[in-house]
Specification:
elongated; about 425 residues; single chain; Tyrosyl-Transfer RNA Synthetase; Structural Genomics Hypothetical 15.5 Kd Protein In mrcA-pckA Intergenic Region, Chain A; five-stranded mixed sheet; Rossmann fold; 3 domains; alpha/beta
Length: about 425
Amino acid sequence: MSKNFIQELRWRGMLHDIMPGTEEQLQKEMTAGYIGFDPTADSLHIGHLVQIMTLLQFQQCGHKPVALVGGATGMVGDPSGKSAERNLLSEDVLRYNESCVKKQLEKFLDFSKGRANSAELVNNYDWFKEFRFLDFIRDVGKHITINYMMAKDSVQKRLDSGLSFTEFTYQLVQGYDFYWLYKHKNCKLQMGGSDQWGNIVTGTELIRRKDEGEAYALTTQLIKKADGTKFGKTEGGNVWLDPKKTSPYKFYQYWINTSDEDAANFIKIFTQLDQNTIESLIREHGQAPHLRQLQQALAKDITIRVHSVADYEMAVKASSILFGNSVTEDLLSLDEDTLLSVLEGVPQVTISKSTLESCNSVTDLLSEVTRSTIFPSKGEARKMIQGGGVSINKIKVADVNQKPTYALLLNKYLLAQKGKKNYYLIIAE
C-alpha cells in the first residue's frame, strides 16, 4: 500500500475506534470498505463530509471505497443519536434523493473503470426489494439474539422515550448490508461515525455467525466545534453541498469564519493537504493570526472541491463587497444568486425604472425616491455626500446634484453604501 490508512486517520485526528486486526488487514492487501449514506434529503450536507473524506483517504491509500446509498434503510430510519422517531419517506422521494446523493459522491471519488481500486456505488434497495419478511427473519434474524440487540447504546437510550420495532430492527438491516457486501463484493470493512459502532459490529457478528467469516470495523470522530456549538449548523440550518440549497458564497463564508482552533482541526480533516504543508500553515498562522491564512487555505480547498474554481473566485469577490476593498468590476462580475446571497438581510427598497430615469439627483434618489429607507431627508443625504461618505455601486458620489445615471447591476439593482458598513439594495423594476 502506498500510504498507511490508519496512520493517515490518526495524524488527521479522525480515528475514534478500530476493531483488532483491521490495520493488519489493510496492510496485507487492497481491501474493499464501505460507508452508508441514507438519502433522507436531496443533498448531503457538510456533516457528511467526514465520511466522504474518509472514503477519499481510503482510496488515496490504495483501497477500494464502496459508497452505499441506503434506499432501503432510508425507509426505516436509524435510531443512533436520535431522540425521536424519524419521519419515513415515500419511495418516489427516496429515489429522487438517491440520484442527487449519487451525483455529489461522484465529485469526490474516482469511479473510473480502469483502476483496480475504483470506487463503487451500491444501493441496498437492490437486494432488499425482493427480500420477503419471513425469509429475512429465518435467514438473518435467527443469527442475532434479542439480548445482543438490546445491549446496544442506541437502543438503550431510546427505551424510556419509546422505540418502534421499525427502528429496533435497523441494526439487523444494516448488519445484513455488510453481510451482502462481504458475500458479493468481498467487502471486509465497514466505516462510519462513532455513533455507528453498534450497528457496524452487528454486521461483523452476522458475517462471523452465518459464514464463519472475518470482517472489520472502524469509526471516526464526531466533529464538534471548539465553542461547543454543533458543527455544520448555522442560524439558517444545515450547510448543504447543493449550491441551490447553500450558495457557494455562504458555503465559503462558513469556512472562512471558523475560529483559529477549529481551522487547525478542520484543515486536517476536510482537505487532502499533506502533514508538512498543514503543519507549516499552522506555524505561519500562529505568527500572524490576523492574516487568517489557515481559514483562507481551508475555505479555498474545500470550496473548490465541493463546487468549482469559478465558484470559489466568485465567493472571494463577493466577500470583498461587504468586508473588503472591492471595486465596481467585482460587483458587475457577480451572478444574481451570489449577489442576493451576499446582500441577504440588507435593507431593500423597490422603485420603478421610469421613476429612476426621471429622478433629478442622487440626493433625491437616496431620500424621497427610496421613501426615506436610506436617508430620512434630503438634508441628511446631502450632508453625508458632501462628507464623502456615500457610494453607489462602489463609486463614490461626489456631487449632490448629479443625475443617478449608474449602470444597473444585472439590469435591475443598485447597491447604495452609507458610511463604512451600511448597505442598501435598490431594486429597479
